[in-house]
Amino acid sequence: MYKKTLGALFSVLMLAGCASGTGQPVSTAGTYVMPDGSGDGQEAVIKGKDIEIYWVAKENKTKALYWKGDAPEEAKEPGPLKWTSQGDREAMDSSLLASQDSTKEFTLDNGVLSYEASAMGVTKTVELKKEQ
To answer: Measuring CA to CA, which of 4, 47, 79, 131 is 20 to 30 A from 21?
Structure first.
């Protein structure tokens, strides 16, 4: 199980993609998943003024907290939405696979949430697509 979780973790760090903006206002609420549809890697949920990101391994139904912090409920202007999330250290300190950062930069553009994730000395830009 540990090996598969680390495999999923490594896989998400190796994935890359591109996002493009539509110039339309966006609502941030929703679930954001890996664009390849595998269910492995990371998954984000924005609800109210909070964002939570989990490492997920679909095969063994495992989730581990990576990030918990604040998020805007909606964009005030058209175009890409960028924000700095303040991490909930109390929540993340109890998770072995959680980020060690105090803040994290996010961009939401055309239904694609992007941010940098680091694990095992590797940093990669992660892009998650909003579920329909």
So the answer is: 47
